[in-house]
Amino acid sequence: MNTALTDEFTSINSIYDATTLELVSTEPTICALQLPSQFTISIRLEFPLDYPDAPPSVLGTQNAGDEGTKKGAGKRLADLARDVLARVYRPGEPCIFDLLGEVGEELQRVEEAKHDEQAAGQEDNPDYADGLQEGTVANHDRALASSDDLPHLTPPWTVSPTVTEKRSMFIAHVAPVTSPAQAKSYIAHLLVTDKRVAKATHNISAWRIHGTDDTVYQDCDDDGETAAGGRVLHLMQLMDVWDVVVVVTRWYGGV
């Protein structure tokens, strides 16, 4: 494997499970990729010698699942991975992290659509409302509603491309804010709704806000990465950036 692929192995398997990306053969370089929530199905990826200057190929399934797996699920998953790979790959940029994230979101949307269809069918049943149990969707909604930190709408994040440095992977989120309370609520929403971000080694944040009556609010949080929040805030000061919150997420790659 070349250095870029070796670094991606280390990063992916430190962010996700240790067996998410596994080497199957070296000539050619073929790997098995475990996709999010698909515990019994993995796909085969072939990497060219000049990856990431050239894209990997989805060969099919490495493991088609157990007896409980629905017929054709492996093929559908491989087709989905091909479609997503065609969207996320950029020449010269590692793409497996983005592939995992996009496929995970697609699978989540499918599950949510199924859930909505089931819920619509249940609502036609007059006994449904009376039979709703604690710990179901109602309980989930109550848990979210009980937190004053979470905004009612998804924050308008702008998300950076993935940056890899010394095997660590970084992604930044930035959104406009008008108060420290709003900045804190946006950060809380990100950590609750994005499992990848919540599992990261560090989520470094900073914000600068012009308040009323010439009041200025500036603050930062290292989240365990010494002086990192202060450096993000200092960069925002140098750039004269105002009325935004920035969250820099780091997945430690072992170096």
Automatic annotation (TrEMBL):
PROSITE patterns: RWD (PS50908)
Residues covered by region (Disordered): 112-133
Domain RWD as annotated: residue spans: 7-110
Compartments, as annotated in UniProt: Cytoplasm
Pfam families xrefs: Impact_N, RWD
Gene3D superfamilies for the chain: Impact, N-terminal domain, Ubiquitin Conjugating Enzyme
Keywords: Cytoplasm, Repressor, Stress response, Translation regulation
Family: Belongs to the IMPACT family.
Designated name of the protein: RWD domain-containing protein
Organism: Cryomyces antarcticus
